[in-house]
Amino acid sequence: MTEIIQNVKNLSIGFKSKKGEEILILRNISTNIKKGETVGIVGESGSGKSTLALAMMGYVKHGLYTIGGECEFNSSNLLKMKNRDLEKIRGRKIAMIPQNAGQALTPNLKIGYQIDEALQLHSDLKEEEREKKISELLNKVRLPSPETIALRYPHELSGGQQQRVAVAMALAGTPDLLLLDEPTTGLDVTTQAHVLELLNFIAKDTGTSMVYVSHDLGAIAQVSDRIIVMYSGEIVLEGPSRDILKKPIHPYTYGLLKSIPKLSLAGLPQSMPGSQPQPGTIHRGCSFFDRCDFSEEKCKNNSPQLEYLEELNTSVRCFNHKSLMNDSQVNQTLNEIKTSTQDKEILNLSEVSISYAKQKLLDQVLNRISDDNPTVKDINININKGETIALVGESGSGKSTILKSIAGLLRTKGGIIKFDQNRNLSSDLKERDPNDLRIIQLIFQNPDESLNPNHTVEEIIAQPLKLYFGLKGEELKKNIIDLLQKVRLGEFYMSRYPRQLSGGEKQRVAVARAFAAKPDIILCDEVTSALDVSVQAAVLNLLQQLKEDFGTTYIFVSHDLAVVRAISDRVAVLYQGRLCEVGPSKDVYQFPSHPYTEVLLGAVLEPDPDIKPKLVAEDIVEEKPPQKGCSFQGRCSRILGDICKNEVPPWQITNSGNSIRCHIPLKELQKDQIN
Amino acid sequence: MKLDNIYQEEKKSNFAKVSEIIITMASRPSGFIGLSILIFHVILAFISPYVAPYDFKAINPTLMLQAPSAEYWFGTDDLGRDVFTRTILGGRTALTITFFGSLIALLWGGLLGIFCGLVGGKTDDIVMRIVDAFLSIPWILAMLLIVSLLGTSTEVLIPALGFFYGKGIVRVARAATHDVIAKDFIVSARARGHSNFSIIWNEIIPNVRDAILVEGAMRWSWMLLGFSSLSFLGFGVSPPTPDWGLMISNARGLMSFAYWSVIAPIVGLSSLIIGINLTADAFAKALGIDRSTKAPV
After folding, report:
1. Are A387 and A449 in contact (CB under 8 A)?
2. How many beta-carbon contacts under 8 Å exist across A and B?
3. To which CATH superfamily is domain A345-568 assigned?
4. How many angstroms away from the CA of A391 is the closest CA of chain B?
5. Which of A384, A407, A567, B55 has the fewest CB atoms below 10 angstroms from its CB?
6. Domain boundaries, given as residue ranges, for chain B
7. Which of B183, B184, B187, B195 to mutate to test the interface with A (most CBs of A within 10 A)?
8. What's B91-287's CATH class?
């Protein structure tokens, strides 16, 4: 088992800047992959983890070049090899599974044909044998009825199924080493848990070594034997997975683990200040110096070396790892969130339904929407002033759709949206007056897209101020500076363009723009999912602080249950556009819960090797909500029978005020779930 | 909290931005050649009346169809006029008319395209079908019709050319707008309740400007070819004004024995078109828009 199959020696990869400087993306990386081992490479975006994984198959991205070092696979240096020789290794010996399988599969070729292609290239099987092998592979990745799947096109499969096909293709050449670049990042929570479980099984079953690249410590924790933590192009910590997650002896890993919200704990995790330095800006000293809680004077000028500690079988790059070793149990100190919920209702959705169906000509002429099975149906939520309510669910659950209707961007089919108990808000933007528009502001998922790349920060924040308050000149400028300070950005950010800011800074600007309108309600659409973990905590803390200062109400949409747990007062769980469960957040996270909530909670990946996800239901994807009965009937493992299929379940209310929409009596539900 | 960011790049003045783009363009061989040819033609158009050695309309029957010599560099034509004089003067009208024509095309094509892209729906459908209908009419027929109805004066030619070459820009501007309006910052501006005008002016134009300018530059070279074709057919500039299209048309019958009278205007016209094309390509590359993968329509 100790045979080394991939050996990276002193690898440095970089590019030349316009000024002719050599800028390093990877700095002196030395590591190895043993046979049958699964290694997780973890780091934030820009840490060089993908570049390292690609170098392991002898590929250096366009524009980058190898500055020094080698990547040895079976004792030949891949980086010096000719393309012709590399072709013999790629696919047969080293295979890669890409992040987005949907884009990696050719859309106009059938699945079976694409796997056959891989087999033709990477194996010596004859035609009849290949056919058998295809269904064998599809079986191995646990796709139902391989024969029919092989005849389908990629778009006919769900995201999870596509990822499985990609795994099958990678296995076609029976590789010794499998590189996985964020293989589950784009998938839903439940699907992600299933795919990881499959990968674990394949690693054991075939004895293939795996390199698993991810930013998600939760996913890494589930699959890897050994973890490599990267920070700005260097390995800062490398060792057995359990030790690293339980007792991280590098301040970065320590901080990272502290900043991840956990399911079991309410309250906001502490954030790490600052962000990862850009490549080429570190000239001396430790690259983590600026953000480190344990830094000393010597860290500023001396770069620590990667030090191997025999007793822990761990390598660490820090002068102070000894002091961390003593008290490095990750004790999460959480900033408790104060509930500022008032008794006054601020927004009320009653019987809201939304349809995406294409309307018939007659309906278009009459300007009405008719659809007997709309995408979103029967939404009844009342939101109090100062509350944070979270809408959770997988993709397709209608959570963003509901936000759009509240913002007036999408017409509802029916139902009433009422503001402040007496004002009806039309879901059509044109029918709202400017004040109705001001009171509701949006913050988007991806700050790259929500900020105009051709505007400076000043121009971006000035827009709502000019539009709603007609500010000009000095007063406008004063307000902008004020807002920037509120989101912890300095005055000098005013003249910058979004491309000059980091992800976290961009999101802060978006937050400032939303608050510039002095809104009563802010709709947050997956605001942290595009951000790195250490930055996510900072943005969540900022949102909480602003809420306490301004008494704003948040409607928070997220697929991440741990984040929701951290920030929200109340949670609404949605499936297929229908509400399943609504209640105070601490109760939703406790049993009894709706069978769907149970599935979601079970699938959450925590950065702890001892907490394994519980896979309760199959990860089938349903395209349409059922015509009648319970919305979750298709996937429910506790289905009772015809009653679930024919009758919409009633709301049952628990002692703590949690409403669950299920036919199963609460007591039975609780008994089953606790066992 | 430490807020040091490495990018200390400040907001640049417009002049600095333009000069940076020109320097980037000139740093590529093709861009340098294109820019040089274009600048040469523009300078020539300005100074040619002052440097022309002879009177462009002076007819001299004794000097008919002289071969190039030290006295008459490019020879003389069938009426004994100096071809060199007529060639360096021949680009002026074409360059001026098509330049202003392109500006008009850019303006109406760009704005209509952006508007259609933004509002979408039925308005977009109707306008785009009309544009399609116009695109399907052979331009030369339509131009001939307009010119024969309204005359060949500059006041007619500039808007007529501008209209005909703006149709293509509508499509490009609309497509560029479609890319932008899906972005969240437009959704955000809409949700805030900005007017369509404000959204077009503040949010869309800065993001589609580059694509439209590049398309406009390409249209310029097409328009130049179109204008010269009109002159060639006798519907553009009227004699005796020197014009390349006209000169080629006059001299084409004599090509077999007096090649010089037709070579010079041909070189003039094609070099200008190549110059504009190369410049437009370099301009696109300097702005980060790669035209090489797209069809030049």
Report:
1. no
2. 88
3. P-loop containing nucleotide triphosphate hydrolases (3.40.50.300)
4. 20
5. B55
6. 91-287
7. B184
8. mainly alpha
